[in-house]
Amino acid sequence: MRTPRLRSLAVGAALAVVLALVACAAAGPRAAFLPTAAATEPRAGVEIRVALVEWAAVATFDLDGPYWISRLTDDQPLTRDLDGRKTEVKASDKGFDVGGVLLAEKEIRLHPRAPARLKHAGIRYEGTFHLVRNNKNRLLLVNQVDLDAYTRGVIGAEIGASSARAALAAQAVAARTYALARMEDEHRTRKLKYFDVYPDERSQVYKGMANVSPNVSKAVEETQGLVLQFRGKIFTAYFHSTCGGATDSAHDVFGDADIPPLAGVKDPWCDRATLADWSAKFTPKEMEDRLRKEEADLGELRDLKILDARPSGRVLKVGLVHVKSGSERTTKMSGAAFRLALDGDRVKSTWFTIERRDGKWVLSGHGWGHGVGMCQSGAQRMGQKGMDFAAILRFYYPQGELAKGYVPALEGK
Prior knowledge:
The longest helix has 25 residues, at 165-189. This protein has 3 domains: 17-43 and 152-268 and 372-404, no CATH class; 58-137, no CATH class; 277-366, no CATH class. The N and C termini lie close together (9 Å). By secondary structure, it is of the alpha+beta class. The strands form 6 sheets. It has a 6-stranded antiparallel sheet, with no helix packed on it. Helices cover 21% and strands 31% of the residues. It is globular and about 65 Å long.
């Protein structure tokens, strides 16, 4: 299977240009980082795989020009040029039906002829699409795309093209670093097998070319090849919308290695007037139904208790007190899982309190997102005040380093 890889690796005389974000890196706990390759010249041509449709009965795509289809494993052509149009793909035991073209394959790739672009759900994408069918004849649709193009698609969707120039550049470095860390994780664990990242909050929000502007493209160009590292190793550069006044520890929220760049900071830059304060109400039935989707053994819900929280107020553990088979039980759920079970757009962060009021469950909280890493609201404010992207990254990822020309450890995949 053709997978994310370096198209050209000029590995001779490796060059590492490390710009320390702080004067000296204080001693701290050494993290269990993934193995990395030595730094080399930038523009290595890394490609990333983004799952756009996950194991659906039908997948659709569109083009504004001709395309051809190949095997995924070796790019052996399976068709001549086909007319670009809206096309429905189905799978059966015999293979793929691509708009009436039958292909007896398990994995195929769609190649647009330049300057055509592939589209899905009305959004244009650079790169290629590939399709995989499983034993149940369900389809996976993946966009395989150059890392720079992916980063542009993330910036436009995550922080917005109209953000301050320095905030856009800081987002470019964080998004690029996050993507590479996830690629290395997938290379090591093979958890996802056919793709590296999701197109939504499970990884980074990615909308192809939908929100790409000249300012977004410039941010990617100006930070070309730059990633964040700690003690020479890349780390997962988390970011979120609004911290509400303090960012949190990746170790506490996600169970990651406890390292200074992801330990959390007090944040006076976060604009608390916009997205920082919120509340969400749920009827008892709605609360029970939503939680049962995550906890199938949940009985009749009687109470909700915050069992553990960070000093910042962000919830680490929630106790679901319920009755099943005549006995009262308490099921523990992480604050992050609890939030997502109830809808991450309504319960905007894990910094909340819970109370029963007027027959409803009421959650009141601060911030938007998981609260780890760079706060986009704060980064925007810092950029507006004239700070550059390195200053923003230095503040949100203390003791981090900027490394140019990083090469991910993906060989042999």
